[in-house]
Amino acid sequence: MRDAELPDRRELLAAFAAPAEAGDEPVTRSAAMLAELHRQRHRDPLAAAGIDCRRAELVAAVDRWVGAARPARVRGISLGALLDRMAAAHVHADHLLHHCDRVSDTRVHTAWYRLATLADEWSDLIAGYLPERASVGSR
Q1: What is the pLDDT of residues 3-37, one digit of tens each?
Q2: In a domain, 2, yes or no
Q3: DSSP letter, residue 100
Q4: What does the alpha-carbon distance between residue 103 and residue 61 come to, in Å, rounded to a whole number?
Q5: pLDDT tens digits for range 39-77
Q6: Cβ neighbours for 27, distance < 8 A, ≥ 6 positions apart
């Protein structure tokens, strides 16, 4: 990933689903770590304070990394915080998918719809971070 590029929604969803294969890019690696922290939080609610502290550190790190190439916020929204919400939504949707009696359960659909909405928001926001490409023939 070049310095001004950010991962697209597909890369993030892959990192949430398969953390071991997230690669070395800072944002996708952070996405994988955030998803794993949300899984840990679900398994061990008593460890929530420490887990939430680590999540906050990762959110800040993502915003710092993004801010090195572009302003770290768009319309007052932290990309790190959005990434954390996406990770939480993915972990929740995946959990419901594997633990509901029926895949057609409304909760499963609602959870995946929430993740899709956040992924759309990510796509919309990072569009403002990508460098504009000069059109052919323009000066």
Answers
A1: 457 899 999 999 999 988 888 889 999 999 999 99
A2: no
A3: S
A4: 36
A5: 999 999 999 999 999 999 999 999 888 877 665 445 567
A6: 1, 6, 7, 12, 62, 65, 66, 83
What are the φ/ψ torsions at residue 74 (nearest 5 degrees)? -120, 125
Number of domains in the chain: 1
Q: Domain residues for 89? A: 9-127
Residue 137 belongs to a domain: no
Least Cα distance to 127 among 6, 3, 2, 1 occurs for: 6
Quick one: tokens of 111?
């959870």
Give the number of residues written for the chain: 139
Encoded amino acid at 55, one letter: R
Contacts of residue 103, defined as CB under 8 A and 6 or more positions apart, other chains included, come to 97
For residue 49, give the amino acid letter.
A
Tell me how far apart the alpha carbons of residues 44 and 40 are, in angstroms, rounded to a whole number.
6
